[in-house]
Specification:
This protein has 292 residues and is mostly helical. It folds into 2 domains: 178 residues, no CATH class; 74 residues, no CATH class. It contains 8 helices and 4 strands. Strand 3, helix 8 and strand 4 form a beta-alpha-beta unit.
Length: 292
């Protein structure tokens, strides 16, 4: 619970020190390790990583979780609070700091040894300015809501695991939302209605729904001209003509129930080979595309 007489911290001037690091080991049994300021393994995190690996999490997932845990441990190391003695007030201050503080400006790794590279890439876009090709916004000075939501989920899961093992605090410092205290999510869901999003963590921010990104026509023409093979051009132009959204994985493609296959014997491929343009591609067809 929150101690009303707890420490009053100046979060506005708080800067996380660059102590500790997430190290890649190359060992498939322990692909990543969280190290403290003297390169000692943080055992509570190592046990949690083993749990993630047993739950069939990939190495990239473990790395993502480790970076969030590194933020948290740097925060409590700075406050001189043990990980197993963290309270809700500490988690609350951490959530406030991530919400309001600017992201730290770290020295580039090429400059840390006093070596200045011949050419240093500088930011060509102002924060939140979309990329002309991908439509993705440039990173802003604050932590994104999706970053903070992911971090809150990781830390709440970390303390839930140690709470089950009896090795962490008696109370999870990252509590559930007050509306979730009465029971599980969707406990009284009407099967005739769609599921509604229910907030889980109390300190988890609301992540805005992203709209699909688009590519301008001139950039698409540049991309189309750079393709070297007619098969790739056929797939690209067919997808553009049909408004295709390519599935992320094979499972989503199977759920779609159909796919577009382009081979040298496909009429659209032969038509494109003869014309060399995307104008000859049909405008109707399947809902997904794949290479063969």
């Amino acid at each position: 619970m929150v101690d009303p007489c707890g420490p009053k911290r100046d979060l506005a001037s708080l800067v996380l020190p660059e102590i500790g690091r997430l190290a890649e080991t190359g060992d498939p049994w322990a692909p990543y390790q969280l190290l403290d300021s003297v390169d000692g393994v943080v055992e509570p995190v190592a046990v949690y990583f083993a749990e993630l690996q047993a739950a069939n999490c990939s190495g990239t997932t473990i790395r993502s979780y480790g970076l969030d845990l590194l933020w948290w441990f740097r925060f409590i190391w700075l406050l001189e609070v043990g990980w197993n003695r963290a309270e809700q007030s500490d988690a609350r201050d951490f959530a406030r700091w991530m919400q309001l503080a600017d992201k730290p400006v770290r020295a580039h790794w090429r400059r840390r040894d006093g070596v200045t590279p011949a050419s240093v890439a500088t930011a060509s876009r102002a924060p939140s300015t979309p990329n002309a090709v991908t439509g993705k916004s440039a990173p802003g000075p604050k932590y994104a809501a999706s970053t903070r939501a992911h971090c809150e989920t990781v830390l709440r899961s970390f303390y839930d695991f140690h709470l089950e093992q009896g090795t962490g605090p008696v109370i999870n410092p990252f509590p559930l939302d007050r509306s979730r205290r009465a029971g599980r999510a969707h406990a009284h869901h009407n099967p005739m209605e769609p599921f509604k999003r229910e907030k889980q963590g109390r300190y988890r921010p609301n992540v805005p729904q992203r709209i699909p990104r688009r590519i301008p026509d001139d950039k698409f023409n540049e991309l189309f001209a750079s393709l070297r093979h007619n098969r790739d051009r056929a797939l690209d132009s067919a997808g553009r003509a049909r408004g295709v959204m390519v599935p992320r994985n094979a499972e989503q493609r199977d759920q779609a129930g159909c796919s577009t296959t382009v081979t040298p014997t496909t009429p659209s491929y032969q038509r494109l080979s003869a014309t060399g343009t995307a104008a000859s591609m049909p405008s109707t067809g399947a809902t997904s595309a794949k290479l063969t």
